[in-house]
Amino acid sequence: MATIVVMPQLGNSVESCIIVEWMIAEGDTVSVDQTLASIETDKSTMEVPSTAEGTVLKLLWEEGDEVPVKDPLIIVGEPGEDISGLVPGGDGTPAEADAPAEQAAAPEAAAPAFATERATGAVSPRARALAASNGVDASAITEGSGPHGRVIERDVAAAIAAGPVLTSAARAAGVSATEGTGIGGRVSVADAGRTAEAAPAVAVAAPAAAADFPGASTSAPLKGVRKVVAKRMMESLTSTAQLTLNTTANAAGILAMRKKVKNADESLGLNKITLNDLVCFAVSRTLLKYPVFNAHLEDGVLTQFEQVHLGFACDTPRGLLVPVIRSAQALGLKAFSDEAKRLAGGAIDGSLSPDFLSGGTFTVSNIGSFGIETFTPVINLPQTAILGVGTITPRPTVTADGSIGVEQRLNLSLTIDHQVIDGADGARFLRDLVAAIENIDVTVLA
Asked: Measured between alpha carbons, how far is residue 187 from residues 74, 141, 208, 313 in Å?
């Protein structure tokens, strides 16, 4: 009997996944745990293993589609088996499929068909991108060939090949024309009654290619990590009262510590400790004295945490991710650095579990390696503050004997939510953090 394989719940915070690439095709034979597809969550890229064995009778989605977790993904069974009752939009009445044990424990995960009203009239991301780049109104395609009438890429391609597309106004006015004068060749109301014979007899020279306006362009909907980052940044800026305070710390001590561990005996395992590790380590200790900075603000409720779950911004091929060092305040410097390397590596190559990309109580964003001195970091909701770390810059200073010298200063930018943190508290936090950084040799011993 046919079995439905559903999109798995990959991490507690994942709600949907985008199919990046199918690893199998209809008609292929699959086994349990065989990789079915490469998918992208809002945080990382992963692989979907099969929970059933047999012949792939139906792929229910296309590459580029965003699939809610626990929704049907493929149908597996015996060759030639009737699955009309299982395919969304099929002739038969949806019936229960043989589900793996883990699916049977969660009835909602083994639902054999999509809710028709959810998908009817929907347009897949790839179809939407193709339509936008060709000036096609995807909403004008009333019947798609995807599940539940979903408009997919081949439907848009067929509409493009069929000829000129009517604008919504022209469609409402019942305009009929073989050629359009609108953007992308679309037929507009102005084309009503226009025929090929009505074209001017005198040929007009086409404008030079260099004068083409606005020129070539591409359009694509935001998706995956980029879509999530865009949404969260807007939510952060529109729902909080953000204030940024800037200061600097004498970097002499932290530079000396970095040099010392870099040149230490390799058997100690300290050589890979970075400046960012040292700064984040100092942050994890300073936060213990300021609970309101190590907190979440949600729906008017402030939750302060005893443990420091320190997030750090990480630049990855899929965009900005924030891995979280759990219980950072309890880790020694080497363990802290090792965990940061593990998390960053997993975030970059896409192997990190989504569970380690959520639950942070404070975030550090370091873009000093790009030469940025100061910036305004955006709070990572529902957190109440975030620290930006800039580059180290030389600054003039007056030495003890009254002469002018040069001092290396580390730039720090602290953004606070002024709803729960006052500017004076932000200043105190930075003062103590500067002290922890400038005396890092003592901080690591505390």
From this structure: 40, 15, 24, 48
Span 245-251, average pLDDT? 98
Last residue of a domain, one of 60, 81, 114: 114
Q: What is the pTM of this model?
A: 0.65
Domain count, the chain: 3
User: Predicted confidence band at 164 (pLDDT cuts at 50, 70, 90)?
Assistant: low
CATH number at residue 271: 3.30.559.10
Within-domain flag for 412: yes
Q: Residue 362: name the closest of 307, 410, 434 by CA.
A: 307
CB-based contact 185:164 (threshold 8 Å): yes
**Residue owning tokens 């600097």:** 248
Q: What is the SS3 assignment for 132-176?
A: HHCCCCHHHCCCCCCHHHCECHHHHHHHHHHCCCECHHHHHHCCC
Residue 418 catalytic?
yes
What domain range includes position 161? 125-199
Helix (H) or strand (E) holding 252, with range, is helix 252-262
Catalytic-labelled residue, pool 82, 349, 422, 441: 422
Query: Catalytic residue among 28, 137, 148, 418, which?
Result: 418
Are the C-beta atoms of 330 and 287 separated by less than 8 Å? Answer: no
pLDDT in tens, 260-315: 999 988 888 899 999 999 999 999 999 999 999 999 999 999 999 999 999 999 99
Pair 305, 169 in one domain: no
- Nearest of 124, 132, 122 to residue 186 by alpha carbon: 132
Give the pLDDT confidence of 210-229 residue by residue, as tens digits.
Answer: 568 888 899 988 876 787 78
Of 88, 114, 140, the one marking the end of a domain is: 114
Domain co-membership, 164 together with 228: no
Shared-domain flag, residues 360 and 292: yes
426 CB contacts (<8 Å, ≥6 apart)? 243, 245, 385, 414, 416
Q: At 69, which CATH number?
A: 2.40.50.100
Q: Which residue has the tokens 């007056």?
A: 398
- What mean pLDDT value characterizes the chain? 82
What does the block give as tokens for 64? 């580029």
Answer yes or no: is 362 within a domain: yes
> For residue 325, is it within any domain?
yes
What is the Cα–Cα distance from 71 to 320, expressed in whole angstroms? 27
Q: Which range (122-131, 204-213, 378-387, 421-430) has the least confidence? A: 204-213
Rounded distance, CA 99 to CA 110, Å?
7
Closest by Cα among 47, 27, 26, 25 to 37 = 47
* Residue 309 falls in the annotated catalytic set: no
Do the domain assignments include residue 216? no
